[in-house]
Structure formats: structure tokens, C-alpha cells
Amino acid sequence: MERLKKRFGIGSVCIVADRGMISAETVKEVELRKWSYILGVRMRSSTEAKAVVARAGRYAGVHPRAMTATTLRR
Do 47 and 19 meet the contact criterion of CB atoms below 8 Å apart? Predict the structure, then answer.
């Protein structure tokens, strides 16, 4: 990532990852480098997500609308 930043003059980085790419080690490295990040995880089953949520102000929960018969017909 540092090579890409220098080569293309990138000012800031935001890592976007789904639950298959997330580990405590990855989150630690991303935070060490002070990169912004967006993690897509199931909140109930992710140890790493629970660790991030424990730090106030570090996340925003996003929930899809509930699927109903009405929304399925649209």
C-alpha cells in the first residue's frame, strides 16, 4: 500500500473488507498504519467486531431493511 501511495500520489487510504478477510492481526495492522477502514461482519459471531465495538465512537452499525412481502414485490 505504501508503494501505491507514493507511486500514484494517494493521500489517504480506506480499507474495505468482508468477514472473510478480517482477523485481529489485520485490524491491528490497519490501525497501526492509521488507515480508515470499513468491515463487513456479522456482529453476533465476530470476535474482532466485538473488540471494535467495545471502543466508543469507533463504528457505525448499518442494518438492512427487513424483507417483507411488500418489499419483495417491488
Answer: no
Query: Residue 15's CB: how many other CB atoms inside 10 A?
Result: 16
**69, three cell numbers:** 412481502
Q: C-alpha grid cell for residue 64? A: 438492512
- Residue range 17-65, pLDDT digits in tens: 887 777 888 888 888 988 888 877 666 666 766 776 677 666 666 666 6
Ramachandran region, residue 60 (left: φ > 0; alpha: ψ -120 to 50; beta: rest)? beta
* pTM, entire model: 0.51
Q: What are phi and psi of 29, to 5 degrees?
A: -65, -45
User: What's the pLDDT score for residue 9?
Assistant: 92
Give the separation between CA 43 and CA 9, rounded to whole angstroms.
35
